[in-house]
Structures are given as C-alpha cells and as structure tokens.
C-alpha cells in the first residue's frame, strides 16, 4: 500500500476500537450493562473498555503518523502493511462493525417470557438439592399429625395443622431441628428455614431470592400455610388454567447467556387481569398442588400489585449464603 493510503486501515481500526469502548461506556452509564452481565463482572468489562481505548489511541496515532508519511518500521524483516484485496478487508472489518451497529441500533431489553418459554420455566428450585440429599419433607411430616394431600389442579387450603403456631414451632431449638432436618449439604437451608419460619410474612429479598425460594421449596410441607411476599414478572403457558400464572425471575451466574428462568406457581381468581411480562408484587399463602404431573409449591395470592421493573431484574447466587 502506498504511503498516501497507509493511514486508512489504522483509522478504521481506531474507529472500531473507540466504538466498542464507547458502547461499553454507554451501557455502564445507563445501567443497561446489567441486562447482559452480572454485577460482579462489571468491573472487568470497565477495564476492558480502558484497554480498547488504549488500543484505539495507538491505532489513531499510527494513522496520523502514516498520513504525514512517517512510516513505522521494525527489525523483524517482515512487511506489516495491509496489502490484501480491498474486498477481503471490507469483510473482516464488517464482522466487527455489524455487531457494533446492532448494539447501538437495537433496543436494550431484559430477558422475559419468550426466552423463558424456550428454555423452560423451572418451578422446582430445590430440585438439585433434593436430588443430592434425603427428602427433608418426609422427616418433617412426622411433626404434624396428618400431611394434606393436594388435589390435581387446585391448591391445598391452609389449616391449623399446615403450619404449627409460632409458640409451638419456635419454642425450642430441638423442636425447630425436628421440623427442619438436614444433611451436611442442606444445613444452610435448614438454618435459613428456621429464621424464616418465625416471621409472620416471609419476604423474598433480591439478595437472597434464589436461596429463599429454594428453602421454601425444599421444606414446602413445613411452610404450607405460611404467608410469603415476592416480586417478579408474569409468565404463562398452555398448561395453565385461567386462575394460574407463574411469578418468575431469571437466575444469572455470569452473563445472560447462562440465564435460567425459575419461579413459583400462583393461584388467583383474577389472574387474567395481569398481562404476560407484567411485573407484580404478590402477597399470599404457601400451599401445594399437582401441576403437570408433579407436586409443586404454589402461592395462593391474596394481594397483587403492579410494579415497575427493578433496576436489577435478574437475581444472582449469594456467595455468602450459609457462611
């Protein structure tokens, strides 16, 4: 390539590098970066933007130097000029420019029901825990006189035997240990369950969303009849009746590529009034039901309020849980 045109390629490279750095800065500034990665990864992405800026600045310097005829040389004995066919260079640059344009032109949206339907909504958040340990619900059932049998497609009605009174259940450590037995792998969930059981209304906070729902699901029999309050987006599929929907969230480990939808089945007589993907906050009573051939935890909703989507719409595993 002649000295006159030697500045073209480094100029294009500088534009692309600055473009990616600017896109990252835009996502961070607008908090839309959380649509794509978990908060613990944000720092590394910010650092990568600094690296892109530095590389872009070097390419810009190279372009300016080439424009003024200052050809850079080295002692390696190889020609580093871009002498390929223009159409080949256009294809290579296009591979970088196309996703960058998509990033700026396409709207930034969080994951919702459409992806949840493709991945499959997980209504049994304690499945992985149950598969690696004994069923605690079986041991806990002996604490009560008669465990209730759910009716297919309907929720169990809370009764006095569903959740022992607080004075009985929280009276001694021995009683609580009997109510919430555990193995080494589930000890943290049992401790969390004992704390939750003492509350009149069990909150499901953002920072312990996964762990709290897993605890409630793991000890579903013991928590039957207890009140719970949680938020999420409305999800539906063809297997649900007009009284049912799922209040769901996406669990993210690292980035949106590994996002997994999970949630809780909700039973409410006016469920149809809430549109799919609408964010809601629900207060209701925990029960159990037969759904799609499986016995699941269900929330018999008593109050439902429409809310704005939170800043962080995904939930993340809490590394300090159980420590």
TrEMBL record:
Low complexity bias spans: 131-142, 152-169
Record bears the keyword Cell inner membrane: no
Transmembrane regions listed in the UniProt entry: 12-29, 41-61, 90-111
UniProt region (Disordered), positions on chain: 129-169
Record's keyword annotation contains Membrane: yes
InterPro entries: DUF1980, DUF1980_C, DUF1980_N, UPF0703_membrane_permease
Domain DUF1980: 12-122, 185-317
Domain of life, source organism: Bacteria
Annotated keywords: Membrane, Transmembrane, Transmembrane helix
NCBIfam families reported in the protein's UniProt record: TIGR03943 family putative permease subunit
Protein known as: TIGR03943 family protein
Species whose genome carries this gene: Paenibacillus hemerocallicola
């Amino acid at each position: 390539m002649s000295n006159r045109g030697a500045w073209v390629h480094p100029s294009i490279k500088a534009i692309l590098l600055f473009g990616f750095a600017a896109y990252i800065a835009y996502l961070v500034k607008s908090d839309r970066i959380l649509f794509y990665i978990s908060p613990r990864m944000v720092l590394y992405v910010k650092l990568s933007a600094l690296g892109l800026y530095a590389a872009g600045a070097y390419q810009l310097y190279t372009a300016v130097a080439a424009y003024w005829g200052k050809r850079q040389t080295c002692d390696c004995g190889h020609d580093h000029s871009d002498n390929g066919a223009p159409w080949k260079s256009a294809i290579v640059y296009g591979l970088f420019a196309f996703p960058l344009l998509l990033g700026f032109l396409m709207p930034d949206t969080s994951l919702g029901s459409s992806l949840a339907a493709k991945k499959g909504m997980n209504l049994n958040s304690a499945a992985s825990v149950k598969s690696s340990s004994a069923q605690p619900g079986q041991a806990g059932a002996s604490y009560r006189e008669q465990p209730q049998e759910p009716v297919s497609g309907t929720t169990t009605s809370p009764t006095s035997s569903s959740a022992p009174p607080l004075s009985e259940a929280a009276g001694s450590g021995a009683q609580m240990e009997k109510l919430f037995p555990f193995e080494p792998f589930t000890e943290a969930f049992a401790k969390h369950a004992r704390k939750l059981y003492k509350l009149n209304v069990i909150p499901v906070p953002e920072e312990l969303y996964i762990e709290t729902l897993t605890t409630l699901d793991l000890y579903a029999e013991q928590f039957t009849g207890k009140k719970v309050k949680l938020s999420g987006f409305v999800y539906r599929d063809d297997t649900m009746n007009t009284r049912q929907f799922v209040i769901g969230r996406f669990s993210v480990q690292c980035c949106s590529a590994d996002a997994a939808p999970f949630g809780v089945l909700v039973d409410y007589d006016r469920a149809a009034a809430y549109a799919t993907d609408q964010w809601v906050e629900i207060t209701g009573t925990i029960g159990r039901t037969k759904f799609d051939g499986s016995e699941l935890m269900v929330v018999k909703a008593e109050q439902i309020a429409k809310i704005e989507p939170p800043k962080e719409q995904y939930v993340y595993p809490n590394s300090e849980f159980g420590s």
